[in-house]
């Protein structure tokens, strides 16, 4: 199983289509899953969550062998850097704890 974050963005959306085209099992973590479900293939699992929420990351990473982090924060200068750093740290720690290499 492949976990993809950032599938609603430009790069993530293109990667999602490529993975789906190859027939890869994909799970997408999205803050607004309903919007993504309309764009994703029926075989793609879309789960609600946020990279700033460690519990949702832990759940999304269960059974995953490969994970892509294609997320960036959209905010003011100070909060942008802090939120981006926290999100990336959460993702890295959760992936490591889940055994994603």
Q: Please tell me what the overall shape is.
A: globular
Strand order within the widest sheet?
3-2-1-4
| Class by SSE composition | alpha/beta
CATH topology: Rossmann fold
Order of helices and strands: EHEHEHEH
Number of strands: 4
CATH class: Alpha Beta
Measured as a percent range, the helix fraction is 40-55%
Query: Which blocks of ≥5 consecutive residues have pLDDT under 50?
Result: none
Q: Give the amount of beta strand, in percent.
A: 15-25%
The CATH architecture assignment turns out to be 3-Layer(aba) Sandwich
Q: Please, how many helices?
A: 4
Largest beta-sheet characterization: 4 strands, parallel
Distance between the termini: 13 Å
CATH level-four homologous superfamily name: NAD(P)-binding Rossmann-like Domain
Cα-based radius of gyration, to the nearest Å: 13 Å
Mean pLDDT: 91
How many structural domains does the protein architecture include? 1
């Amino acid at each position: 199983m492949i976990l993809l974050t950032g599938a609603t963005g430009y790069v993530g959306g293109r990667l999602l289509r490529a993975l789906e085209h190859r027939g890869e099992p994909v799970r997408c973590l999205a803050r607004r899953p309903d919007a993504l479900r309309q764009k994703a293939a029926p075989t793609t699992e879309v789960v609600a969550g946020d990279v700033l929420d460690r519990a949702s990351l832990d759940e999304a990473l269960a059974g995953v062998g490969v994970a892509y982090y294609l997320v960036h924060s959209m905010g003011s200068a100070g909060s942008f850097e802090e939120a981006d750093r926290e999100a990336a740290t959460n993702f890295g720690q959760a992936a490591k704890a889940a055994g994603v290499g």
